[in-house]
Amino acid sequence: MKDATPEKARLNGESCWKPSRNPVGSWILVNIGYKRKVTAIVTQGCDSNNTRSWDIKLEMRLSVDRRKWTKHPDGKFIGGGTHLLETPAIAQYDCILPLENCPEFGLRFDILGCAHEDETTCAGKFNSLRFTDSMT
Description:
Layout: E1 28-44, E2 57-63, E3 70-71, E4 77-78, E5 81-98, E6 108-115, H1 119-124, E7 127-128
Antiparallel strand pairs: 1-5, 1-6, 2-3, 2-4, 2-5, 6-7
């Protein structure tokens, strides 16, 4: 879709990201900008009234260098809502992979976390890493 490119995937945005083909085999990658402790992910579909547009299995992979990728230990999750990670992970790159084919699939999301050395802030509350135009 012309208006469903990756930069449209911001949470609560007016558009969303949609894969150019079937969701399985597609992915969206976020460069957070520098290493952060990732503590949660919040996901929404394109259409808030159509839960089928995001109610599919997703997987998150994390990396500090884009060479070695690790599946998050919490495993797969279903899109839609806030998913707190039992085991926070240090990453600069976060890749979201749809694991099911669904023609209506579309995604908006935000990554939550904090500076990896900031134990107090991370323990007390979750902060949006707030995607900016400088994040790719």
